[in-house]
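Render this sequence as a predicted structure.
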Amino acid sequence: MGVLSALAILAILIVVHEAGHFFAATWQGIRVSGFSIGFGPVLLERQRRGVQFALRAIPLGGFVAFPDDDEDSAIPADDPDLLRNRPLSQRALVIAAGVLANLLLAWAVLVAQGALVGVPAGFSASPGVVVAAVQPGQPAAAAGLLAGDRILSLGGVEVAGGQAAVANLVADIKAAPSRSLALVAARGDQRLSLSLTPDNNNGIGRIGAQLQPNGSEAFRPARGPLEVIGQANRVFVQLTRRTVDGFVALVTRFRETAPQMSGPVKIVEMGASLAKSGGGSLFLFTALISINLAVINALPLPLLDGGQFLLLLIEGLRGRPLPQRLQLVFMQSGFLLLVGLSAVLIVKDTSQLSVVQQLLGR
């Protein structure tokens, strides 16, 4: 059920994103020819008012199609309701609407969390530190740690609970480059004795793992609508800032941050885990992924909304569109980049699944 919940959330986020484009176009009277979830061959379809609504075989996104893209369209090229014949401002709204829809959804989900679950009332900490993620090929993975493990002691010293325990554990790891440390971890009902040797990174120990406190967030009923909205606004700003900072770090410190990139498999695994924990975790997961989807689509890369917006900006500066040949090369290069990156991330994330690593005897 957890996996199904995570898949359902991803599907809803994609539908909302594409619905933003769709309604921004139809609201302005712009012709739309298709609304698809997924890519590739059509599995299910329905025609309504001249629009093909379709579910396709490759579930890696979706798209809204316009008659402008169909060379065999019977609609005259000078039809004023074609997207390409509308003013730049109207086309810009259609392109930006997907990103805006995901941001609005994230904020609405956070408001719903405050109204249904409550507002945070403190963290209930338990002993140990949870391993949230493990980078392949790094010391944590070599020691046998998996995402979801709970570190109970390091170097014979028991690990306490809370955020302070995470900070102390990180400090101990940093202070022990190239030193073998005895580590005890819990994996379900199992108790594991492992040997962890942090890498030496300019005198600082690193293990290639993401750590978080062990415990759960406590919630209380909100005192009123203003508190719900205020809390939603604060969390929305925090999540957006962290997401943008993450992408900036990916560009400026690519070698360090690239191994932390995750694809759809990892996202589904994370969502499934949060779905089991219940409470406000699934709301936060939905908001975070929706914001990530918005930021990713805003990047000025081919095939993404940001890439389309970049072409529109160039058209506005030049007074005319780029030649079709250049636009085609731009889009085709983006297709190869995104498909290749998706394939790499899917293989990487699948290989890190605990069930796969257990089958491989790691």
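Summary. The mean pLDDT is 81. The chain has two domains: 86-118+223-362, 122-220.
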